[in-house]
Amino acid sequence: LEMFSLVSGSRSSKTFKPKKNIPEGSHQYELLKHAEATLGSGNLRQAVMLPEGEDLNEWIAVNTVDFFNQINMLYGTITEFCTEASCPVMSAGPRYEYHWADGTNIKKPIKCSAPKYIDYLMTWVQDQLDDETLFPSKIGVPFPKNFMSVAKTILKRLFRVYAHIYHQHFDSVMRLQEEAHLNTSFKHFIFFVQEFNLIDRRELAPLQELIEKLGSKDR
């Protein structure tokens, strides 16, 4: 499982936001352990499939938390290169620019720098994950009816952080020798959202070539 534990050394503990922990001893923790074990087998297409007899919402919840933590760490290692000066707009290459709105605090999309946008985005995701009515951690507490649409919005937004890292900071990732980790994490993410049809193809356009490349190796 070595490839999934973050790069060793002092940088590895640097996350952008606090890590979101799944309570030990809970069923979700067991599911997370199952996910890690199947990832270790190296077959990512198989690893993302819903385990037999498990609840789809719960499986999506556990993996969403895990992707948040992975992106949190990946972005945490490059924050010093993603600044107001280097990234005055939140973009994924010249053709894609993102403006932030969360529908509650900021209703009308605002143009802001990438570090500001990613701060808004990760804080927003964190608030969703911490909301017990949306992401219940207690056994027997049902998921809300709108859970799937909430999860889709979270994953759509998390994708944008990968897209920004690939388009604007890949040279830094290479210098830190983290490209294998980034690629594995992103590939896992893409196979997961493809398996359950969670992100619209249009949203994936900024990394379409990479997605096709990653997928073709696993046919």
UniProtKB/TrEMBL annotation:
Q: Which SMART domains match?
A: Mob1_phocein
Keywords of the record, alphabetical order, are: Kinase, Metal-binding, Transferase, Zinc
Q: Which residues bind Zn(2+)?
A: C82, C87, H164, H169
Query: What InterPro entries does this protein's entry cite?
Result: MOB_kinase_act_fam, MOB_kinase_act_sf
Q: Which GO terms describe its molecular function?
A: kinase activity
Name it.
MOB1A kinase
Species whose genome carries this gene: Eolophus roseicapilla
